[in-house]
Design brief:
Layout (H helix, E strand, L loop, with lengths): L5 E6 L6 H13 L2 E8 L11 H14 L7 E7 L8 H13 L4 E4 L2 H9 L4 E3 L20 H9 L10 H9 L2 H11 L9
Length: about 200
């Protein structure tokens, strides 16, 4: 029998949005197992308002709501130890190799990440979120759906709930994460969040 097709996808998911879910579903359809890594390498900030555990929880609940077969998916978090001096990207790739222990295709929506891994001859595919069928999701003229766009909509009081899975919107409001996103965006600085 042929060896299983394994994929890895890394993101910060700050927060998860429809593009993430549609993209991940496409990867799942083409692979037997998908390892999704929620990465966190910095303090809470304007661009990283959620803890890695909050981001993971919103992602898993959103995948479940979208009908994804969670037996085909492994979602984990990864934080680089403070004393680890190497590039975070190679730390992640090395950790994935140790976790998966089989050949895998690395998917990324970041062109720089794609170029770096390609230059090292590592198996990587660029996943352009703008090629996904997202036309039904209203974003501003000339804008693309991204977590940055979602955070800015939340921070500036624009409609944002339609940009994320409904379960994620509900949890963001229930846990008052939108208040933190707004505060960090306005302050533009780091906040220390105590992990519960």
């Amino acid at each position: 029998s042929s060896s299983p097709r394994i994929a890895a996808f890394i993101g910060r998911f700050q927060p998860v949005h429809h593009g993430h879910i549609i993209g991940i579903k496409r990867i799942i359809d083409q692979h037997d197992k998908v390892h999704i890594v929620v990465a966190s390498f910095s303090k809470r900030s304007k661009i990283n308002p959620l803890t890695h555990l909050e981001a993971k929880y919103l992602l898993v609940r959103s995948l479940k709501e979208a009908g994804v077969d969670l037996r085909k998916v492994k979602v984990s978090t990864m934080r680089r130890p403070k004393e680890y001096k190497c590039d975070p990207l190679f730390f992640v790739h090395g950790q994935l190799r140790r976790r998966i222990r089989r050949p895998f295709m690395f998917f990324t929506g970041n062109r720089t990440v794609h170029e770096i891994l390609s230059s090292r001859n590592l198996p990587v595919r660029f996943f352009d979120i703008n090629t996904l069928p997202l036309s039904h999701i209203a974003v501003g003229k000339g804008e693309a759906l991204s977590a940055t766009y979602v955070r800015e909509a939340i921070a500036t009081g624009k409609p944002w709930e339609h940009l994320v899975p409904s379960v994620a919107a509900r949890l963001i409001k229930q846990r008052q994460l939108h208040d933190r996103i707004r505060e960090l965006h306005q302050r533009g600085e780091n906040l220390h969040i105590h992990y519960k």
